[in-house]
Design brief:
Length: 309
């Protein structure tokens, strides 16, 4: 264990996974409470054609260039969802499924086309589908860290506006106006896209949405306080990122992204049963105590009736 903790590659991957888990947990809180939790799944799948097009146009596998392509592709997907939702009155979940499948299908086609292109520097692009945490470099950590700090700074500036938007969209329109509310909504979608895109290399397009959703629904089991919920979401995301990296880097030699999601799943299941707010075990004890009180009251009443007789 000591040798593993001192390993340079492990340190890089662990720091990257932990930072990613924290920022995804924090940003994901807003998406889940807006009842748009699957927006992360759409964003991640929409990013794939952008990555492929960025490589086709530049011929380089530079991470920054590929993520810029992913960003514009994801932005296009979100804008299409918002447009069709407003103009065509389609259901939000239907639009998510449509954009998700269409963009991901296009990405697979472009990826297949790239594999048939001449050249030897095209290998490794499919890591954005399933993730390859071991491939991240020290420079990638700086990108994740700086981006995370910028996103947190934006959250702090628009904290009150985002809270109103999340909990009551109609009230947000009444106090800020329709245009400002639309701006806040798009800005929130923007930072959600960024937080997902920076994690594609580590977790992959298929699993990254789980890193946005599961920490939040887990934190929801423990508290009703919004601020504390955000802290818990970041904590669950970060600790799962570190533990997942630790396990995947050991003798198990398993994919880091998948292990991180499994750890999150275990934490969620534990929370479902043993959380102090909504835990099934607590509900069971509460019902059992109520039953005992009712039985004791009925027995006391019977004793009283017997004495009267």
């Amino acid at each position: 264990m000591i040798n593993l903790l001192n390993n340079y590659t492990f340190q890089i991957v662990a720091v990257g996974s932990t930072l990613l888990g924290i920022i995804c947990g924090i940003i994901g809180t807003f998406s889940v409470l807006k009842k748009e939790s699957l927006i992360g799944d759409t964003v991640s799948h929409s990013a794939l054609p952008g990555i492929c097009l960025a490589y086709i146009l530049t011929g380089e596998k530079n991470l920054v260039i590929l993520l810029i392509g992913a960003f514009f592709s994801s932005i296009l997907g979100i804008l299409l969802i918002r447009y069709f939702e407003k103009k065509r009155k389609n259901k939000f979940d239907n639009l998510l499924a449509l954009i998700l499948s269409s963009f991901f299908g296009l990405g697979i086609v472009l990826l297949t086309y790239i594999q048939k292109m001449p050249g030897s520097n095209k290998a490794g692009l499919n890591k954005f589908i399933f993730g390859q945490a071991a491939a991240i470099l020290k420079e990638d950590i700086y990108v994740i860290l700086i981006t995370s700090l910028i996103l947190i700074f934006i959250l702090i500036i628009f904290w009150k506006n985002f809270k109103v938007l999340v909990f009551d969209y109609t009230y947000s329109i009444s106090i800020y106006g329709r245009k400002k509310t639309l701006f806040y909504n798009l800005l929130l979608s923007f930072i959600t896209i960024i937080s997902i895109i920076i994690g594609l290399e580590i977790v992959g397009a298929i699993l990254i949405s789980a890193l946005v959703i599961i920490p939040v629904v887990t934190a929801r089991q423990w508290t009703n306080n919004f601020n504390f919920m955000i802290i818990l979401s970041g904590f669950f995301g970060g600790i799962s990122g570190f533990i997942g990296t630790l396990l995947s880097s050991s003798k198990l030699n398993m994919p880091t992204g998948a292990i991180i999601i499994i750890i999150l799943g275990i934490i969620f299941i534990f929370s479902i049963f043993f959380s102090n707010r909504r835990g099934l075990f607590k509900k069971y004890l509460y019902k059992r105590n109520i039953q005992k009180l009712v039985i004791n009251e009925l027995n006391s009443k019977k004793v009283g009736d017997n004495i009267v007789e």
